[in-house]
Amino acid sequence: MMFDLPDSQTLYAALLERDAAYDGRAYVGVSSTGVFCRLTCPARKPKFENCTFFATPAGCIEAGYRACKRCQPLAVPDGADPALRRLLDALDAAPARRWCEGDILALGLDPSTIRRAFKRQFGMTFLEMARQRRLRDGFTTLKAGEPVIAAQVDAGFSSPSAFRAAFARLAGLAPGTFRKDALLKADWIDTPLGAMIAISCSHRLHLLEFADRKALPREVAKLQKAQPGGIGIGRTAPTEQVAEELGRYFSGAGAHFETPCAFHGTAFEREVWHYLQAIPGGETRSYSQIAAEIGRPSATRAVARANGANQLAIIVPCHRVLSADGSLTGYGGGLWRKNRLIEIEADLRDRKVQTG
């Protein structure tokens, strides 16, 4: 059951004492190892600065942590539905599989019952857990030096027709209503961290977002309203260029982008976005630092809002902004992606230092 977590210092003290009162009620993600544990885990205790605390396993998994093999935070308690253990074992046996409700039915299980049981026990559904596992393992493959194509474990769209149907639902349109003469064209780009949707005209990129971003329908609607010609389906030169640049980025070849972009925002928002683009890869800033450096020291909250309004993910690197204490803060693509992007750029920076 969920309950309000106390402050991090209290939880860290409970971790050091292996306080059983928090078992199953709080979990710790350890940035130095990439694992998450129960607070009663017998493993060597991490430093406080490497700890992030969560109320559910779902929070840990969504932040990109994998389950500790020693304390087994995903272990099913005695008396729980045996189907939970059966599916967790199946996921361990085939982590790269694209699980669907049909697979659950094939095992003789009821998808709705399984959905409720996983949500109750772990804070997320089995299919959500399986998808996060694929993404995390894909990133691990990438860091191990495998080709990018080997890490593209969750493209999200199996074909142009699948993308067309999905984008139609996203945009609130019937697939047959897309205009062939539309000035803006939408297409998808596969990345190791999941599919991204790109919308561009023949000259500039207008939007680049992860396909599962919750704000994406609103952003697409905003573009539709601003562009009388509507949105069609297809790949323009800017989309092709940014796809190539993203490929180099995720393969570790560099974090520099030259794709021409259209910035849809106020003068202040554009000022913040241009500042973000000037932050070197491998470095981070806080909201208050940005406010001070653009000459608006009292505009910290406005900077945060501008950060959230950015609709050109990675190109305008809002993932390089942390809270004043250095911890991860909100990111539309998910904190786990933000953490991975920062790690990618730190690796790029370290390799540049070693070779330069």
Describe the protein's architecture and organization.
It is a single chain. The chain is an alpha/beta fold and 356 residues long. The protein has four domains: 8-67, DNA Methylphosphotriester Repair Domain; 82-147, no CATH class; 155-235, no CATH class; 263-356, Orthogonal Bundle (Arc Repressor Mutant, subunit A), CATH 1.10.10.10. The protein contains 14 helices and ten strands. The strands form three sheets. Strands 3-1-2-4 form a four-stranded mixed beta sheet. A four-stranded mixed beta sheet has the order 7-6-5-8, sandwiched between helices. Strands 9-10 form a two-stranded parallel ribbon. Helix 12 crosses helix 13 (300-309). 36% of the residues are buried.
Which key features would you list for this structure?
356 residues; alpha/beta; DNA Methylphosphotriester Repair Domain; four-stranded mixed sheet; 10 strands; globular
Topology:
Layout: H1 8-17, E1 27-30, E2 35-38, E3 51-54, H2 57-62, E4 66-67, H3 82-93, H4 101-106, H5 111-122, H6 126-143, H7 148-151, H8 160-171, E5 184-189, E6 196-200, E7 205-210, H9 216-226, E8 231-233, H10 237-250, H11 267-278, E9 285-286, H12 287-293, H13 300-309, E10 321-322, H14 335-355
Helix pairs in contact: 11-13, 12-13
Summarize the structure.
The protein has 356 residues and is α/β, with parallel strands linked by helices. It has 14 helices and ten strands.
Task: Note the beta-strand portion.
Answer: 5-15%
Structural class: alpha/beta
Distance between the termini: 52 Å
Stretches with pLDDT under 50, minimum 5 residues? 139-143, 146-155
CATH homologous superfamily annotation of the largest domain? Winged helix-like DNA-binding domain superfamily/Winged helix DNA-binding domain
Gyration radius (Cα, Å) is 22 Å
Instruction: Please name the CATH architecture of the largest domain.
Output: Orthogonal Bundle
What integer is the average pLDDT? 84
Q: Helix share of residues?
A: 40-55%
